[in-house]
Structure formats: structure tokens, C-alpha cells
Amino acid sequence: MKITISLEVPDGTTFRIEPVEASTEFVPPYADELIPLPDAAMPLPGDPVAFRAPQARSADVRPSLCPIHHEPWKVVPAGVSKKTGRPYDAFQACPVRGCDQRPAA
Ligand SMILES: [Zn+2]
């Protein structure tokens, strides 16, 4: 870069140009130059996918177990109740005899 500057100085005046050392110190921008961020994530106009926080997947991945016996549910095939004589659909239940725990629907 070449800059031509014309200066008029009195006779006898010492004039010199010194290179300015590059400052390694971080100079923060002026506060009034900062752009305030919105309080929450805002979807862009026309953005087809609204922002959604990541959700815990552990409940989906982990197999459902009896909360008491920690046994995986067994499928009881559909049949007719010996007690009431009424037919029932297949359902899941704890494999431990006498346990009435059922998986939450
Ligand atoms: Zn159980």
C-alpha cells in the first residue's frame, strides 16, 4: 500500500513515521454495535420445520419392563376368561405369576 501525504512542517522539525505494532489485545466492539439476540430461538419466515428442542429418546429405545420385577412384558394371547367367561384381546403383562402390572399404554 502506498500513500502519498504532503506535509508542511517548520524548519528544524523532526518528522518520522513509525510502523504501528499490530495489537494482539482483543478489543471488544462498542456495546452499541452489538446486535441484541432474541430471547428464544425464532424460526425463519417460511421455515417448514419449526424449531424443536431435542427430546429424550431413552423411553423409546429402552424396552419396557415390569416396574416391580424388571422383567420384559410377555404377550398373553387372546382367549376367554375362565373367571367371567368373557373373551379378551391379546395383551401384555408381567411374566411373574400373580403380578398384575401392565405396560402403560
Ligand atoms: Zn411384575
Quick description:
The chain has 105 residues and is low in regular secondary structure. Helices cover 4% and strands 10% of the residues.
List strands and helices in order, with pairings:
Layout (H helix, E strand, L loop, with lengths): L57 H4 L12 E3 L2 E2 L6 E2 L2 E3 L12
Antiparallel strand pairs: 1-4, 2-3
Bound molecules: zinc ion (ZN).
Look at the helices and sheets and give the structural class.
little secondary structure
Shape: rod-shaped
The ordered H/E elements are: HEEEE
Distance between the termini: 75 Å
Largest sheet: 2 strands, antiparallel
Please state roughly what percent of the residues sit in beta strands, choosing from under 5%, 5-15%, 15-25%, 25-35%, 35-45% or over 45%: 5-15%
- State mean pLDDT (0 to 100 scale): 78
The strands making up the biggest β-sheet line up spatially as: 1-4
Number of strands: 4
State the low-pLDDT regions, or none: none
Number of helices: 1
Q: Mind telling me the C-alpha Rg?
A: 38 Å
Which ligands occur here? Answer: zinc ion
